[in-house]
């Protein structure tokens, strides 16, 4: 019903920047809550950032506040994650999550569709 495709990952030095993109396609809904999660080797998946359909409400993990910015374009729909001042501890596979039919989603289980992930590696 909904396909999710991520892009923009890569290898950067500490202090560098990357912009991740995630596009949803297929069946259309009146609203889409969207989010970014990440998972590092040997670690559990954690939520990084979330955004409401209107874009007015956002959530950021404490570890990325002030460095990462989530935004969206509802015409596509697409969500972006601008990552600045990257640190080695940001190294992980980043996943885009989509919750069709919701203006806002808080819990991981509310996100029904997921991308395949894009690798972000930050070298020291």
Uncertain spans, ≥5 residues at pLDDT below 50?
none
Largest sheet: 7 strands, mixed
Strand content: over 45%
Helix content: under 10%
Output the radius of gyration.
14 Å
Report on the architecture of this protein:
By secondary structure, the chain is mainly β. The chain is 0% helix and 52% strand. It contains no helices and eleven strands. It has strands at residues 2-7, 10-13, 18-26, 32-39, 46-51, 58-60, 68-73, 78-83, 92-100, 113-114, 118-123. The strands form two sheets. Strands 2, 4, 5, 6, 9, 10 and 11 form a seven-stranded mixed β-sheet that branches. The protein is globular and about 45 Å long. The mean pLDDT is 95.
Provide keyphrases for this structure:
124 residues, mainly beta, 4-stranded antiparallel sheet, 0% helix
Which helices and strands, and how do they pair?
Layout: E1 2-7, E2 10-13, E3 18-26, E4 32-39, E5 46-51, E6 58-60, E7 68-73, E8 78-83, E9 92-100, E10 113-114, E11 118-123
Summarize the structure.
The protein has strands at residues 2-7, 10-13, 18-26, 32-39, 46-51, 58-60, 68-73, 78-83, 92-100, 113-114, 118-123. It is mostly beta strands.
């Amino acid at each position: 019903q909904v396909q999710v495709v991520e892009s923009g990952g890569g290898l950067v030095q500490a202090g560098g920047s990357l912009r991740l993109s995630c596009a949803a396609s297929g069946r259309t809904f009146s609203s889409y809550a969207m989010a970014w999660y990440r998972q590092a080797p040997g670690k559990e998946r954690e939520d990084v950032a979330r955004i409401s359909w209107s874009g007015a409400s956002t959530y950021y993990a404490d570890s990325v506040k002030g460095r990462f910015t989530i935004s969206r374009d509802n015409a596509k729909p697409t969500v972006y994650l601008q990552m600045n001042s990257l640190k080695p501890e940001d190294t992980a596979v980043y996943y885009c999550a989509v919750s069709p039919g919701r203006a806002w989603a808080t819990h991981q289980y509310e996100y029904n569709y997921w991308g395949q992930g894009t690798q972000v590696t930050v070298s020291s």
